[in-house]
Amino acid sequence: MTAPLSIAQQGYFFVGGRYDERADGRYMTGQMYVEFQIPAARTKALPIVMFAGGGQSGLNYSGTPDGREGWMQFFLRAGYAVYLLDQPSRARSPHDDSVGPQHKFSVERVQQQFTAPERYNMWPQAKLHTQWPGSGVAGDEVFDQFYAQNFASLSSFPRQQELNRDAGAALLDRIGPAILFTHSQSGTFGWLVADARPDLVKAIVAMEPSGPPVHDNLTKGPPNWFEDGPFTKPYGLTAAPLTYDPPLSSPSDLAFVKQAMPDAPDRVRCWEQAEPARKLAKLQDLPVLVVEAEASYHAPFDHCTARYLKQAGVTKTTYVRLAELGIHGNAHMLMLESNNHEIAEVARQWLESNGL
Question: Is 184 one of the annotated active-site residues of the chain?
């Protein structure tokens, strides 16, 4: 039986946000809710800051829908202080209509992309999914618990990036240097916060970060599994500005080309910069871990994100395919699946190997 955790300090606060004057009064927008725990047996100097992905909140990390310990507890037991965030305008971070409209994932989209992709067969690797703790469809108790914690999100992804960059930078200004954990949609926030506070972000663990670069990928099912989606990342990895060297006068200064052939038949053709590639000036010395799950809709393209980072001079990028480590059957919500601590251990060992 797992021993009880001993917590030295815990609490919550809000960061970021601004007051807007309106005809009927003054209101705050853009604030971000943060909760934290510091273990009594803290052995690591740097805290871990965990951003959740689309439609999700800090709850992704504080437990699982079937009642097991989450990554928050795993890393507390490993000696780290942990900070969990709710993105601005989501969950415990209040939404204001002035920021923009919201949308929510349908049951069908959650089943297809996250909990039961093997039933839909929309990408080649989907059939390999085995690790969701339950049937993965509505009516199953575990699925219902998971879907109950899905929240409405801002419809504008560029606006989300701006708000999370600013709130994330405000958080680091308050707590000091930290390690960022990102997942899915929040992958963009990691690059942006590191660009805004390069001296305070000491490493990024990017679990299936928002991608692929430049264009979204659309999954269509067999036989022609993929096609390019919208041009959503004019800065390569983000819609919001990143700092490049040589500097950009506008994002149109970045020239992109597409791979002639994919790395493998079940992979997309990556978009990257035309040579000579500009460098991501403020991310050059940043250790980055990009983790890809075997059965996820990210499996066809996460290598493109690692490839883009390395081409842009982020040479301390480590790209890990869980299947090559003998960790099989995971889809995109890998922090909630049956082997979630086995995956967390991969990240812990990488941090240890980087002296973190």
Answer: yes
